Amino acid sequence: MDLLASTLTALRPLSLLSINQSLLALVTAYFLTKFLLSNNVKGPLPPGPRGLPVLGNIFQIPKFQWLKYTEWMEVYGPIFSLNFAGSRVIVVNTHEVATDLMERRSNIYSSRPRLIMGSEILTGGVVIGFIAYGELWRKLRKAGHEGLNMRAADKYKPLQEIEAAAVVVDIIKEPDHWNDHLKRTAASATLSAVYGWPAIESKDDPLVNRINDIMHRVMQAVLPGAYLVEIFPAMKSLPTWMAPWKKWGLEWYKKDTEMFQGFYDGVSKAMFDGDYKPCFTSSLIERQEAHQLSNHEAAWLAGSMFGAGSDTTSAVLSVFILAMVLYPEVMRKAQREIDTVVGSGRLPTFADSPNLPYVRAIVMEVLRWRPVTPLAVPRRTTEDDWYKGHFIPKGAIIIANIWDPNVYPDYDEFRPERFLDDEGNHVTPQHTRGQGHVTFGFGRRACLGMNVANNALFITMASILWAVNIEPARGTDGKPILPSRTDFVDEAIVVRPVPFKCRISPRSSDITSILQIAKKKLS
Ligand code: HEM
């Protein structure tokens, strides 16, 4: 069933054409594929499963493809190659190989696959996460880094503490809607950090929906086979009257540009009036000239941050709730730590962080245990390369499978202790840049927002653990119903646990006082 579903997804564009057009497209694709794949191979590619002519291995890629890649690693080793209907794909299956290529040879492995519809048409080729490695990317990355590096991330901490208090109130009031509250807080915290806006009240806020729609459109557009123009790039030059998909994409790009420009100008005006909250956009405005960014580039850089930060953060928080339901002893141990350091009279703050090593280890373990970006974001090589006797051609798509069971034999167990030594100091394995995991990616294209994300995760998890117990839901017979530990919703790049029920209750019978403490922070 899964195979069928993914095949249908891959072939969906062909169903939009007539049979004759489809046949013509297939025949052309076949000869083009043969030509392209045979011409740039100068040595033995990494091994890989045999596929069909033309379509290659796309029929063999099931739902949750990272699990299949991990399985294939047993057969083909830590690096293997696939053919996705003409695109050469190299799957890198261990942190070690990923580090060798994407960190140590990052001058070759830091570009992204060309996405004509998702990047060039729908978003004007200006979204930092999607564009090729080059001058524009360097400018955007430098400006983004300035607003999100470790020191800059400190600026957002007061806002993040307030958001954490708000989520405690929400979860206590409506425990069954915990997932919605986590989505709301992730969206709200990201928008506050980017534009300095006050907290949003609902996950269905019309503005949040409007921005989420952009992400949805782009994610649909980047699915393999969603648009024929990806196979036949020359179609990009068709006039819009012959290419309704192009007209549609350009119209959205215009509307989305107007929206992001409006947000950007709003912050600019607030700064002029002297009535603004320091945020990512205000720093960008102050330094726009120094970074040589046009208004348009700066407005899209700020706008792109919501898409990159909101869903990822809320998915990690859902994994956290899943882990607490499945591993109650971990929850209790963290609560004992919080009780000793923080006590019951106030919420945890960032100042407590050095004294809460176990909670910080939980953040790392949540990111490691069920990486919400199990295949990171694909890369593209910009030069031919050789690695351990294998040839990796220029233009190959590189997928890093973060789901690497080699680092820990008990990789499927949720065990924050793996990151702590006997003295309570953090220990992290090789090839993880001191993070304990590689869920934020690798090298020059690693996540720009990781400091902001780590801080948001720490304070939200600490505050939730301080306030409530998280337990399995109970059936009518009173027996616990454990959620699945292996079922996911794959949203193209971000993967989250399937929605599940659990029982969330205040830790103290004195709910009023918990609420008072949290609300005090909000006033
Ligand atoms: C826990 C939450 C997050 C996770 C798991 C995550 C994960 C990732 C991953 C895997 C990549 C691709 C890295 C690669 O190619 O090696 C990425 C890129 C990126 N992330 Fe995040 N991210 C998170 C939160 C955020 C936040 C909060 C922001 C901004 C406020 C952000 C901004 C970005 C940007 C701009 C890029 C593109 C970087 C580039 O292509 O140069 N992320 N993220």
From TrEMBL:
Asked if the Swiss-Prot or TrEMBL record annotates the protein with the keyword RNA-binding, the reply is no
Question: Taxonomy-wise, where does this protein's organism fall, top ranks first?
Answer: Eukaryota, Fungi, Dikarya, Basidiomycota, Agaricomycotina
- Pathway connected to this protein: Secondary metabolite biosynthesis
Q: Which CDD domains match?
A: CYP64-like (cd11065)
| Cellular compartments per GO CC | membrane
* Residue numbers binding heme: C447
Tell me where it resides: Membrane
An example of a Pfam family matching this protein is p450
Q: How does it sit in the membrane?
A: Single-pass membrane protein
Cofactor(s) the protein requires to work: heme
Q: Which named protein is this? A: Cytochrome P450
Q: Which family does it belong to?
A: Belongs to the cytochrome P450 family.
Question: Is Transcription one of the keywords UniProt gives this record?
Answer: no
User: In which organism is this protein found?
Assistant: Hebeloma cylindrosporum
**Which regions span the lipid bilayer?**
none
Query: What does the record give under GO molecular function?
Result: heme binding; iron ion binding; monooxygenase activity; oxidoreductase activity, acting on paired donors, with incorporation or reduction of molecular oxygen
* Entry keywords, A to Z: Glycoprotein, Heme, Iron, Membrane, Metal-binding, Monooxygenase, Oxidoreductase, Transmembrane, Transmembrane helix
Q: Which domain of life is it from?
A: Eukaryota
What InterPro entries has UniProt attached to this entry? Answer: Cyt_P450, Cyt_P450_CS, Cyt_P450_E_grp-I, Cyt_P450_sf, Cytochrome_P450_fung
